[in-house]
Amino acid sequence: MKIIFYRSKAASAIAPLMATAVNRSTLAAVEGILIEAKAPDTVILTTYDLEKGMRTTVEAEVIEEGYFVVNAQKFNQALHVMDSDKITLTVDEKFRATITSGRANISMNALDGEDFPAVPSLKSEMGFFIHQSVLRKMLLKTTYAMGTVDQRQVLNGCFVHVEDDSIIIVACDGFKLATCRRKADIKKGNEEDRYISYSFILPVKTVAEVNKLLSDDEDAITRIYLMRKHIVFEIGNIIFFSRLIEGEYVDYERLIISTHKITLEADKDELMSALERAALITEEKIAGSVRSHVKLNVTNEYLEVSANSTNGSSYDEVKIDHTGEDVVIAFNNRYLMDSIRSCDTEKVRFSISSPLTGMNIEPVGEDEGVEELYMLQPIRMKD
Question: What is the pTM of this model?
Answer without folding.
Answer: 0.90
